[in-house]
Amino acid sequence: MIDGGQSFVHVYHRYKHRVYAYCYRLLRHPQNAEDAAQETFVKIHRSLDQLENAASLQAWIFSIARNEAFTILRRLRPMEELETETENVWDEENPLEKVVQKERAGIVQHCLGLLKPMYRELLILKEYEQLSYAEISQVTGASESAVKSGLFKARRAMRKKLESILKERDEI
Amino acid sequence: MKCDEYQEQLSALIDNELADQESELLFTHLSECAACRATLRSELELRANLKEDVPPLAPRELDEKVLSTMSKAEGQLDARRVMRRGVWQRNVSMRWPLAAAIAGLFLIGGLAVTSVWSPCNKPAEPQVRIVYITALPIVEVHGYFP
């Protein structure tokens, strides 16, 4: 069990940038990301002393951050199914015309931002936060096999989109 | 197994989440399949491009918002604790004398009852006692003693 007080400040300083970056990459809006991160730490503060297993701290923190970020996403897009796995991984059908001029890494980032939130979050948790499939499964509530296939779909879609964009850019 | 299935395994391979036996089969396939090797290259390239992104840092305002809210919440909690302790102490400071007074009353009452019911207060009745005088020869003296 983790005790509150001092350990909260320690947890806050250790995770604040990661939680903010995760929320920012998911929400793509600084103020929304800040709100989600703030709410995440308020919830962590409230229940840190109830966390039984310190080993699952990281997954626990990201699951709280995810809930907060998705709460904001639902508020912004109330009619959308944000967490249902679908074959179409993109938020927009033709997202990349305007970014053809960008550098490759910029295009990759733009593509990432246009993935459906559930695919985007898998890539963020894996590529940036370096969580294991088991931890991602804890954070998202999806099974490990769903995490594995979701990551595969997201990467495949990103690869294909990148190839077509880069081809288009080379033709200009 | 089809290339599509191997490519799903490629994704797990770069995540270091593939079992040894699966890795072995995958590498065997990779040695024979140029398309899957190209996919592996492009997966690694994608990963490298994603990693180029510098993570945004949490703004300073977050420190102020979170830590000051927390310290305010802690302060309120401490104030509540102090208030509760004060109330408790007030209750106790009123109860101790009360308890002492009740205990005193019980003591006095008990003594009074004891003295009322004590055989000492009964009128002295002559009692027959046996007194042994330990001198030789033993003589039993029977008599009345108050």
Poorly predicted segments of chain B? none
Structural class assignment of chain B: mainly alpha
Output the strand order for the largest sheet of chain B.
1-2
Rounded mean pLDDT of chain B is 77
CATH class of the largest domain in chain A: Mainly Alpha
Helix content of chain B: 55-70%
- CATH fold description of the largest domain in chain A: Arc Repressor Mutant, subunit A
* Total domain count of chain A: 2
The count of β-strands of chain B is: 2
**Biggest β-sheet description of chain A:** none
CATH superfamily of the largest domain in chain A: Winged helix-like DNA-binding domain superfamily/Winged helix DNA-binding domain
The CATH architecture designation of the largest domain in chain A is Orthogonal Bundle
Determine the fraction of residues in helical runs of chain A and give it as a percent range: 55-70%
Number of helices of chain A: 7
**Share of residues in strands of chain B:** 5-15%
Order of helices and strands of chain B: HHHHEE
Q: How large, in whole angstroms, is the Cα Rg of chain A?
A: 17 Å
Taking Cα atoms only, what radius of gyration of chain B do you get, to the nearest Å?
A: 48 Å
Shape of chain B: elongated
Quaternary class: heterodimer
Share of residues in strands of chain A: under 5%
